[in-house]
Fold this protein.
Amino acid sequence: MSKKIVVITGSPRKNGNSFAMTDSFIRAAEQKGHSVTRFDAAMMQIGGCHACETCFKTGKACSFDDDFNQIAPAILEADVLVFTMPVYWYSIPAQIKGVIDRIYSLVVGGKDIAGKECALIACCEEADLSVLDGVRIPMERTAALNKWTMVGEVLVPGVLNPGDIDKTDGCRQAAALANKI
Ligand SMILES: Cc1cc2nc3c(=O)[nH]c(=O)nc-3n(C[C@H](O)[C@H](O)[C@H](O)COP(=O)(O)O)c2cc1C
């Protein structure tokens, strides 16, 4: 069955490791007949949540009308959400954290976002897989709270510079993730 997949990236490096995995995933997902819409959060203007709780009161998801309001309708329509990012300081990069925080607007706005599938593609410099806990655990808990099914995680430690991902099987794993959707 063809599904609507929304991919949200968090790296500012277009030639970087998480983008390479993202590209592999998207190619494989499109080959399987899924439709993919991609948002590169680091190339968009997206701030954090103001916790004003006026979500959808202006007709848009967020009253602070930046580029998140382009992503919100796509999230609402999506069957599958795929988040891709590097680890920054043992955590989620600010560029994509703004998007994740503002998914709050869909919850406060009473939108039905339950039942989606979700996946995570992430990488970091250090060789220790537990460094990726800083993105894995919050994404798993976010998925669970929103009643999304986490269908797959590609977690690749030990990559620092652009191109390092090619010394791992990260892109192959990212392509294989498309088989889980
Ligand atoms: C601001 C910043 C913070 C980082 N913090 C960490 C970290 O805490 N742990 C780690 O292993 N790597 C850290 N890194 C390294 C990146 O995770 C690593 O270079 C990754 O491959 C970048 O992915 P990208 O090429 O997709 O941007 C950091 C990089 C930057 C720029």
